[in-house]
């Protein structure tokens, strides 16, 4: 009877150890499933990042920006070349003459008029 009780006791201990191992295996299995989900999510993120390559978008933007700036420089150069230099000089000369006339008139207004009073007779 004691031997059977000892055998039952050792069987219970062994059963408890097996239950603990089984719980540990369940926990490990859940961790593996969670890692598989995380890996799937990371793969999706990597695929999206590869689809939307930021470097290529930046280079496309830079190319477009350079094209627009080049067109602006070209149109500015054409506008400058299409100007008649003699007409520009004549317009500048007219503006200088006008500025000079305005300055002269302003100076004339600023100088005080001191009316001359008749001199008193000396006795």
Structural features:
single chain; 123 residues; mainly alpha; 85% helix; elongated
Low-confidence stretches are: none
Terminal-residue CA separation: 168 Å
Helix content: over 70%
Figure out the total of helices. 3
* Helix/sheet category: mainly alpha
Shape: elongated
Q: Report on the biggest sheet.
A: none
Q: Give helix and strand order, one letter per element, not per position.
A: HHH
Our estimate of the beta-strand percent is: under 5%
Number of strands: 0
Oligomerization state? single chain
Average pLDDT level? 85
Radius of gyration using CA atoms only: 50 Å
Write up this protein.
- It is a single chain.
- The chain is mostly helical and 123 residues long.
- It has three helices and no strands.
- The longest helix is centred in the first third of the chain and has 50 residues.
- It is elongated, with a radius of gyration of 50 Å.
């Amino acid at each position: 009877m004691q031997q059977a009780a000892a055998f039952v006791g050792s069987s219970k201990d062994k059963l408890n150890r097996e239950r603990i191992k089984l719980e540990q295996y369940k926990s490990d299995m859940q961790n593996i499933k969670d890692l598989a989900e995380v890996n799937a999510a990371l793969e999706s993120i990597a695929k999206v990042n590869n689809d939307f390559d930021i470097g290529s978008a930046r280079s496309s933007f830079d190319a477009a920006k350079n094209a627009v700036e080049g067109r602006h420089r070209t149109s500015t150069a054409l506008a400058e070349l299409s100007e008649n230099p003699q007409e520009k000089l004549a317009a500048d000369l007219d503006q200088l003459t006008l500025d000079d006339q305005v300055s002269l008139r302003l100076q004339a207004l600023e100088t005080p008029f001191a009316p001359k009073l008749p001199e008193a007779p000396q006795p």
